[in-house]
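Ticket 4471: requesting a sanity check on a complex prediction with zinc ion. Repro inputs:
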Amino acid sequence: MLKGAATTMVHAALLILSSLVAGTLQFQLKHHNNEELLQVLQDVNSRCPNITRIYTLTETSVLGTPLYLIEFSTKPGHHEIMKPEFKYIANMHGNEVLGRELMLKLADFLCEQYMSGNSNIQSLIEKTRIHLMPTMNPDGWQLATDTGGKDYLIGRTNNNSVDLNRNFPNLNRIMYSNEENHLDHNNHLLAQLTRLKEPLQPETKAVIRLIMQIPFVLSANLHGGDLVANYPYDESRTGSQKDEYSGTPDDETFKHLALAYSTHHSDMANPTRRGCGDVDSNRFGKQGGITNGAKWYSLAGGMQDFNYLSSNDFEITLELGCDKYPPTKVLQQEWDRNKEALLNYMWQSHIGVKGIVYDNVAKRGIANAVIHVKNITNGKYQDIQHDVVSVHDGDYFRLLTPGKYKITAYKDGYLPHSRIVTVTNPAHSSAQRVDFALKPISVPPYVRIQSNSYADLDFDDKYGDLQEAWTNWINLNREPIAVQ
Ligand SMILES: [Zn+2]
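Returned C-alpha cells:
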C-alpha cells in the first residue's frame, strides 16, 4: 500500500515534470494575474508555434504593464490577401473581468482544437486572422482585484482615473455634422478631427494605432454588468442621454451581428430570463438579447463607434453578465454559456462580399479604392452611406446581410465599375468573391511599387488628407513588437 502510494506520487511528479519539459501546463479556468496571463499566452504559443504569435502594442499601461495580444493565423505576423482580420478586446474596464478569462480560455481552446484536428476550428483559422487581447486595462484589473473585486466602479478606469471607453476621439459629432450638411464623407473620419476633449491615454493610443495598422473587418469589445449585445451607435444624434435609437447606415448588418452572438449564447436571447437590475431590466432578453447603444444610454468617446467611423471595422460591445467580477467557481459555466457565441461571432467575418480592386491594364491591386453599396433588395434603391476602402494589395471586405446589392468601386484616375450581386451568406464559408477591374482614364505615367504599409498608400483627393492625419495622430511606422 505504501509502495502503491509512492508509485502514484512518483507518477504524478513525472507527469508534472514532463509537461514542464514540453513547456505545457494544463490550462485552468481561474482569475489569472498579469504575469500568469502572459504565461498562458506563451504556453499556447509554445504548443501552437505555427499558427500563433504574441505581440505587444506600442504603449504600455500607465503603470508600465505591456499590452499583449495573441494572434491566430496560418501566416502569423502578416495580412494575407483576402483573409479577413478579426479582433476581440476584453477587460477595458479593469473591474469587468469575465472577458479576460474567456479570452485566455479561447486561446487555449483554439490551439488545442486546431492541433487535435477539429475541422471547424481548422477551417476558421485557415480562413481568418484572429487577434485576441485579454486585457486593455491591466492596472484597473490589479486595483479591482486588490480591493476584492466587489465594487461596481473601483478599477473601472485606468491608473490616471480615465474611463478608456470615453477616451477615444469623438468621431460621431463629425459624422452627424456631415449627415446634416449632406457631405458624403462617411468613413475614415480621423482626417476631419481637429481637437480632442481630453488627452489620449496610453492604452487608448496603443489601441488606436492597432486599429489603424491592421485592416480589421469585425471585432467585439467585452464588458460586464449586464447581459446584452450592444451595437452602434453608442452616442445619440441629438445629444439625448437615453432612449434615442441611433442606428448606423449598416443597421441591418449590425443587428445581424449582435444576434449572431446573443442567439448562440445559452440565455442572452432568452425572453423569460431575469434582467440584471431595475424592474424593466429584462427587456433585453425580450428583444433578442440585443440593443442599440444610444437607445440604452448615450456615451461619447467609446471604442465601438470609433472603430466604425475611423476604419473599415465593424464593432459591437458585449455585456457578458450581471456580475462584473464573477467568482472562480462559475468560470467553467460561463465558458460553456459563451463558447458557441464566441465562435459563431468570429465566423461573421465572412458575411457579405470580398475581392480585389485592380488596375486592368497594369494588372496590380489598387489600395484605398472606395467601395460603395446600394441595397436593391425587393425593388429598394437605398444607398448605404458608409463606404469601405480597399487595403494593402487592393483587397476589400464588405460585411452585408443576405439580399441584392449594387456595388461600385471608385478610384481617382479610373472609370468606376459596378456589379450587381446577390448575397446569401452560407454558414462557415468564405465571403462571396466579387472583384473589380478598373480601367485607367489615362495610362498612369509610372506604376508605383506598393509597400505593405499603410504609410505608403497612394491616397486619392477625397482621402488625401487622411495620410497626414494618420501620420500625425498615429505614428504609423512602428510595427507591433513580437514577443516570444
Ligand atoms: Zn464596461
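Notes from triage: The first strand starts at residue 52 and ends at 60. Leaving this open until the requester confirms.
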